[in-house]
Amino acid sequence: MSFFENTRKPQGFGGKLMTKMMNSGHSRLSQWGFSNTSVNPDAEVLDVGCGGGANIAVWLNKCRKGHVTGLDYSAVSVAESQKLNAAAIQQGKCKVVQGDVSAIPFPDANFDHVSAFETVYFWPELKKCFSEVNRVLKDGGTFLICNESDGMNASDDKWTKIIDGMKIYNCDQLITALKEAGFMEIKPYADVKNHWLCIVATK
Q: Can you tell me the distance from the alpha carbon of 118 to that of 116, in angstroms, rounded to the nearest whole number?
């Protein structure tokens, strides 16, 4: 397995290293993505594909009276996220679990917000996964997608060749899948200079 495969599913020592790289390397993108949404301090949040746990920490800072759950199908990512957010977990404000976005292990209408930072590239059957996100959101809840690649930059194509199972979507493709999954209000945001894409979809 090449080192870059760890972007899809971190494993072993290389996976631990990748989660730390993602935490630092994606911080500007995440900050921009978070700027496009508002949140109540008592919100229930799910961060899907939580990687190294940096975005869980941001959510915890925004939702000081709420609760944040991290979900990832990589055991390495779960362990690293738990380590980074150990204090909040001990205080009962956070938990991180291993699981798959195509079958989210939580009941219907459970969360006010779901986020997906730099991860939908690797989700199989996008409509099915988006439908699962829709299912666990409360009515009026929001789904925040934030991608470093907007599908409009030809130089990004190299990553889909290096990383097995990766697909870069453009804005229209994501909006179509979100509508098919039952989302009603969909707002896209673009950083054209950096080819960043953020979408906030409301149930």
A: 7
Give the separation between CA 152 and CA 49, rounded to whole angstroms.
23
Q: Which residues contact 90 (CB under 8 A, 6 or more apart)?
A: none
- Residue 55 neighbours by CB under 8 Å, 6+ apart: 30, 47, 115, 117
Per-residue HEC secondary structure of 102-152 comes to: HHCCCCCCCEEEEEEECCHHHCCCHHHHHHHHHHHEEEEEEEEEEECCCCC
**Residue 164, number of CB atoms within 10 A of its CB:** 13
Closest CA to 135 of 114, 121, 115: 114
The pairing of beta strand 111-117 with beta strand 94-98: unpaired
Comparing 10-19, 111-120, 122-131, 188-197, the range with the smallest average pLDDT is 10-19
The pLDDT of residue 149 is: 85
**Integer Cα distance of 4 and 18 in angstroms:** 8
Q: Residue 5: pLDDT above 90?
A: no
Q: How far apart are CA 136 and CA 114, in angstroms?
A: 9
pTM of the model: 0.88
